[in-house]
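Figure 6 in text form: structure in, sequence out.
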């Protein structure tokens, strides 16, 4: 049985490996031993912020099999509605298609409900057609056009 929990610092090598395990991630993540200090600094900031949760799915053997980041965002629009933002969703290659991703995202949505969020949002790279179909099967709707500015 897979369990979902907050990530620990000791999970960082496995998390980084998951983030790097696709065409996009392999070009932007740094898998190294020791872990690059920028990941450590980011993890400490996430861990210190009560509106951030980096979570992992741990399989029966204790392996980090999936990860995601969940942000709880306060807002004034929509009468002060809170939003949940899901990012950095990755499932180990050998478990894709097993239902783990569905269970994990549903678990994350449950955390948003617990926090009183009225909406859950996410973005997926346009080149990840399989991921977009996955999120659409979960009920997500491409209702907005997303834009980014690299700094």
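Output sequence:
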């Amino acid at each position: 049985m897979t369990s979902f929990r907050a990530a620990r610092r000791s999970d960082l090598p496995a998390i980084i490996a998951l983030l790097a395990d696709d065409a996009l991630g392999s070009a932007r993540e740094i898998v190294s031993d020791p872990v690059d200090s920028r990941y450590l600094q980011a993890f400490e900031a996430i861990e210190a912020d009560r509106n951030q949760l980096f979570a992992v799915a741990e399989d029966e053997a204790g392996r980090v099999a999936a990860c995601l980041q969940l942000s709880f965002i306060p807002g004034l629009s929509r009468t002060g509605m809170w939003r949940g933002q899901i990012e950095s969703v990755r499932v180990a290659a050998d478990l894709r298609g097993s239902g783990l991703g569905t269970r994990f995202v549903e678990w994350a949505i449950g955390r948003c409900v617990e926090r009183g969020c009225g909406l859950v949002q996410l973005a997926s790279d346009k080149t990840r057609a399989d991921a977009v179909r996955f999120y659409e099967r979960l009920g997500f709707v491409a209702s907005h056009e997303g834009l980014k500015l690299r700094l």
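Caption detail: The chain has six helices and five strands.
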